[in-house]
Amino acid sequence: MLHYRERKNQIHIITLDDVLARDIADRLTDSPDIAPRLIIPRAYTPEAILKSARDTTDSRILIIDVRTQTKPKLQQAHSDIVRFNRPDLNNYCHTVLIGDGPATFLLESKGINAFQKYLADLRIDYSPAVFFGNPFLYYTHDELLERAMYHNNELPEKIPQRLEKYFKKDIPINTIYEYFRAAGDTGEEKLKKRKTRRRKLKDIYLKMIAQDFPDDKDRLETALSKQGCTFPGETLRLNTYPFYFEEWIADLLIKSHSAA
User: Fold this and answer.
1) Among 20, 25, 79, 161, which residue's beta carbon has the most beta carbons within 10 A?
2) What crossing angle do the helices spanning 245-259 and 18-30 adopt, rounded to 10°?
3) Separation in Å, CA 101 to CA 7, 198, 215, 218, 245
C-alpha cells in the first residue's frame, strides 16, 4: 500500500456548500490552537472536487460533508479520496465528517437508535475519527423532495422548518452561522460574544432534545460534549457541530504530526 507520510500542515474542506465551507474555515482561522493552511474547493461542483481528489494526499485532515442531499453527487469523489488516503487514515491523516444524520431518526419507531447503523455505515465507508451532526443541515424528506422537484435540488438557503420556532422564519443559514461565530467582531469582544452565543445555541439544542426525545434526553445530551454520544456496539460517536469542533481539529493535527 502506498503511504503519504510527508503531508503538509493543511486541511482539506470537501463540500458543495460554500456557506458551510466559510463557517468551517473562519472557525479554524480564528482558533489560536490551529494554524494550518485551509484548502477549499476551487469550485463547488462534483467535477471540481473529483479532480482534486488526489490533492488530498497532501493534507493531514480531511473535513468531509456527508449530508443526505449532496452525498450521492459526490459518491465518486468520496470514494477516490478515501481510497487514496485509506492506508494513512487515523495515523498520518484523519477524516472528520459533518452531516445531517439518518433520515429516520425523528420517527418515533426509530428515534436516536437510527444512528447506530448510520454511524456504522459511515465508519466503514470513511474510517472517520469523529462525526459531527449539524441540525442546520437536517431537512425532512418532504423538504428535500421539494428542493429536488422545484429547485433543481439546489441547497436550501433558509433554515429547516423544524428550527423556525427557535429563530426568525425564513432566516438564511448564512446569517445563523455568522451570528454564532460572531463574524465581524475581533479580539476579546469576538471571544466573549462567541461564548455567550454558544450557550444560547446549547440551550436551543437542549430544548429540541427534550421535545423530540424525552425518553433519551440524558443520553442524547452527551452529543453536545467533546466525548459525544455512544451507541451499543458502535465505536463511532455522535458529536454536534460546532461544539468542540475546533478542539477536535487541534487534537487530530497533533496526532498526525506525532505519527509522522
Assistant:
1) 20
2) 70
3) 31, 21, 19, 19, 17
Using CA atoms, how far apart are residues 63 and 49, in angstroms rounded to an integer? 13
Nearest of 177, 158, 163, 164 to residue 241 by alpha carbon: 177
The residues pairing with 132 across neighbouring beta strands, listed in sequence order, are: 98, 239
pLDDT (tens digit, 9 = 90+) per residue, 168-184?
A: 888 999 999 999 999 99
| H helix count then E strand count, the chain | 9, 7
- Reduced to 3 states (helix: H, G, I; strand: E, B; else coil), residue 120 is helix
Span 93-123, pLDDT tens digits: 999 999 999 988 887 777 898 999 999 999 9
Residue of 78, 88, 96 whose CA lies nearest to 36: 96
3-state SS assignment for residue 12:
strand
**Dihedral sign for Cα atoms in the order 196, 24, 202, 139:** positive
- Joined grid coordinates for residue 205: 439544542
Beta strands in 200-243 (DSSP E): 229-231, 234-240
User: Phi/psi at 224 (nearest 5 deg)?
Assistant: -90, -5
Cβ(179)–Cβ(173) below 8 Å = no
